[in-house]
């Protein structure tokens, strides 16, 4: 998609443009684009640094004349726009959208297809579109001509516009210029879709790799995780029934049967965080992130080994083929599901975190002694734009159900809101206000040092030095490029939080 001389790209109204499919995840599209730097030499990503999870994300490919709009919460492609017809060869049902257009020596782009070409040769008759008057003193407004799943924008002289005019005659006259852009969307027309563009349910999957394949040949895609407490998670999937994961019981073979083989497996050696499990200097009490040591929570490993390559001896890559023989797996390793948006920590069974106090779920019983490996932690990745591990996993959405009556805390909730509700839920577990304050001090996690960001975990300062002071700045500041985030813990849950309050990662154990 780099020039008019490249292989033509097929327009599929309501579906996509070439391999770029409506409903595809930002991770899927960006990974494909980045894998072909010769075809896509320039990539621009735009997002809100203060609210990256609730505002649209824009992926622009200026060398290809394309702009892609993704919704913020789910990061799925909602709108494909062609802004420069000279930089991509487009065809529809074997007809060229624009014949022979090339940018001149000064880089000035030619105009797009004429109304006559669109109307007579490409898409045929259409209902009247809508006219958008000029927003400034420009002599031209914009006439948007819609077909099911595709629309064209034509500059139209404002002085020539009238509600009483025949739009076909008007757009065929000299008052109208050739199209300046084309949009591909899901819906019957642009006016009908516009208001629900970022909220309607996408028809197509997040990964173009599973388009047209049977349910038996590929694993169903994950829609959302429901966190129920006591180590129980319900996985909502696109077409299959919901799946219940029980930490300490679900085996590696169960994960493979439901989600397919992991994209990578890593053995875990590093225990640099374990210093915070022992007594502090001077014989002080052990540092815990839980409201009470009796609740059975300790600081979990935060090194999720989700890097695509291994450059540190704390992580060893294991061939995914070894999962066919359970005895070949090490006692502790990570199953990395980059395209599902989560990791699973595999080890011998341990008692998971407690149930939420007001829920109807009981605390899990201590597991019996067993040599059977199980999933003991699930790590859900937010893929927040601006975060250090951005685009390593696709975004996973989640809901924490504190009791049966609430709507739950979601992956889009600001952490201050999450913290306020969790503090209230666990209020009775603290022995004093001093203990409550002590347990809620954050740790600063730096993923910016070292060659392998996930295996080079550094903690900056001690608990007192990293205490949050006042509201977060609301900026995309990364402390001089270190990629620092803060860790906050509640029983069974560990949140990795960015400076703008977005939850970058949630560990359930």
TrEMBL record:
GO terms for cellular component: trans-Golgi network. It comes from the Eukaryota. Residues 281-325 are annotated as: Disordered. One of its GO terms (biological process) is Golgi to plasma membrane protein transport. Belongs to the PHAF1 family. This is Isoleucyl-tRNA synthetase. It comes from Penicillium malachiteum. The lineage of its organism: Eukaryota, Fungi, Dikarya, Ascomycota, Pezizomycotina.
